[in-house]
Write a structure and sequence with these properties.
With 221 residues, this protein is an all-alpha fold. Helix content is 62%, strand content 0%. The structure holds adenosine-5'-diphosphate and nickel (II) ion (NI). Residues 24-25, 59, 62, 101-103, 124, 128, 133, 136-137, 140-141, 146, 167, 171, 174 line the site of adenosine-5'-diphosphate (ADP). Residues 24-25, 59, 62, 101-103, 124, 128, 133, 136-137, 140-141, 146, 167, 171, 174 line the site of adenosine-5'-diphosphate.
């Protein structure tokens, strides 16, 4: 089967499955990561088919949605690709990327991955920051019953994926535990350039957030 046919089949499947997803991991997130990954590939090189397939499948059976199993996505992505007529070499490369794409904690080093993996990870990380990143974080926090902010609860810089994956902290902490760290954990020149404005926007948002919060505290009766 042609790669373009496999890509289209997977797009259709995900579009249907993720239509009403409400935690910021909806079809539009997948499609933005796919489009951004293809754009980065056009500037930085790498195998376009692997990048397209891995970006589409990067959140499949993610630990946040599969009951906490930490390393299942790659296996599911591999099976799906083989069932859809993909060759084993490409499917294996996609598996490797899906297994290593996620952020695993502030003090957990990213695994060394191929250029294709770096591009997919950069595209996913760009969608976690900026205005869209802020919207996604609060959507996810609300879905998991997390408070918006609890001033007395400080962020934790997690040292293991296990600790990070079970954290129940408020959503403002997520900025310090992940989102503000991402600008220094992008790999490609193209993504670093795109990420600058998005990072500044989050800093601006937080400054305004604390200003409003504190004004309220100062004026209390
Ligand atoms: P990753 O695989 O790196 O986790 P995803 O594409 O699955 O990336 O999306 C992660 C996004 O989910 C975060 O950027 C954020 O928007 C949301 N999210 C995950 N954990 C939290 C959390 N503890 N608080 C708020 N939002 C979160
Ligand atoms: Ni994602």
């Amino acid at each position: 089967m042609k790669y373009s046919d496999i890509i289209n089949k997977i797009k259709t499947k995900l579009q249907i499955e993720l239509e009403n997803e409400a935690t910021g991991h909806d079809w539009f997130h997948i499609n933005r990561v796919y489009e951004n990954a293809c754009f980065i590939q056009s500037k930085e090189g790498g195998n376009r088919n692997v990048i397209a397939l891995a970006s589409l499948l990067h959140d499949i059976s993610d630990h946040k949605f599969n009951g906490g199993k930490l390393n299942e996505g790659g296996k599911i992505a591999f099976q799906l690709l083989i069932e859809n007529g993909c060759d084993e070499k490409t499917a294996l490369h996609v598996k490797e990327i899906v297994d290593s794409v996620s952020f695993k904690g502030a003090n957990v080093q990213d695994e060394v991955i191929s250029l294709e993996g770096q591009i997919v990870q950069d595209a996913d990380r760009l969608d976690a920051i900026g205005a869209i990143g802020i919207a996604r974080a609060f959507a996810f926090g609300g879905n998991r019953n997390r408070p918006i902010y609890e001033p007395s609860s400080a962020p934790t810089l997690h040292s293991t994926f296990e600790e990070y994956s079970v954290s129940k902290s408020h959503t403002i902490n997520h900025f310090y535990e992940k989102l503000l760290l991402l600008k220094d954990r992008l790999h490609t020149k193209t993504a670093i350039e795109i990420g600058k404005e998005r990072h500044q926007f989050m800093e601006f948002f937080l400054k305004q957030f604390y200003n409003e919060w504190n004004l309220n505290t100062i004026n209390k009766c």
